[in-house]
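Problem: given the chain below (415 residues), write out its structure.
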Amino acid sequence: MTVAPTNADLSVGKGPAASTGKAPYKINFDLKQSGIYIAFALIIVLFAVLTGGDLLSPQNISNIIVQYSYILVLAIGMVMVIVAGHIDLSVGSVVAATGALAGVMMVNWDVAWPIAVIATLAFGALIGAWQGFWVAYFGIPAFIVTLAGMLLFRAVTMTILGSKGIGPFPDEIRTLANGFTPGTLNNIALGPLGGADLLSVIIGLIAVVAMAFVQVRARAARVKYQQAVDPGWLFGLKVAVPAILVMFVVIQLARFRNLPWVLIMLALLVVGYTVVTSRSVFGRQIYAVGGNLQAATLSGVKVKSVVFWLFVNMGVLSALAGLIFAGRLNLAGPTAGNSFELDAIAAAFIGGAAVQGGVGKVVGAITGGLIMGVINNGMGLLGAEPQDTMLVKGAVLLAAVAFDVWSKRRTAGGR
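Solution.
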């Protein structure tokens, strides 16, 4: 007796779809993963309208990227820690402590800036190793260890600096935080690209082509194995929309003072950590530890080692953020990094990280950080009071976590 293929068979590549050698089409839209990008777009449109377009002006876009770059760096490390089921409340104090050490070395001790940068990053790694040891090998909850670290490393900062700040920093450090790529191929003088540096536009085009190539290659691999893929029109939309947004930002930046160096650094970090979390063994182990600790242990994952190195990585990124922040202010101060941990944690959760761990992406955390930056910037352009800005940011964070909990309950209820 012959049984006709069901719709379920067709959706997973069975029945006629498999026999013809063609991959089945399936609209793949995950509201939980895609909702953050839709929300980001709506927030941008809202503030663009309310500010009369000032939000999207070349100078303001540049200001958002430069002013919140250190939060985005912290968000990259924080989302990895959260995915593994932990938290780090000390990053703001570590930013201050590492910035203070860098200031003392470069300003008071006349240490060459490359050596000082390496030493500062090593100091951040040691801080991360200290906290990672207590969490991974001694079994103390990360909340407690990093809460203690918040106090401990703030005390270290005040011991190094007292009540005074240290500055100015070398030009190279200030350039990393506030500098822009030089315009070497002159400017485009016609049309909507008026004033845009040609080299920056070319860099943007290269980035867009690379993004499209990765997506096309991934789709081709799914087609080869007859896995479900998006219809051509939807796939084209998913490629075109990010490409248009990237080029818009690049052109606006190129019309102001070209690409910020810190944006180049952030792009390299995002690409590197995305590859690590999605393509490497270590990245898969992070998700395994956060998704199901017992299963990961039984599968042979060295859980303690994974957690330890996650905190080491968080310490290094905190030190990098400390260098950027000190370079931006041209000063290492005892109050640097206040509330940075809250912004980094909020960026990770708004960007789609799950409270229970096991879920989260680097790109999502960056998007969450940009949402916080756009809200801060947009409210500032509107002349809002600080308490109003905090109210909006708190509401957005609560809504993001509530949506995560609701989606989990909905998924569980549908099984």
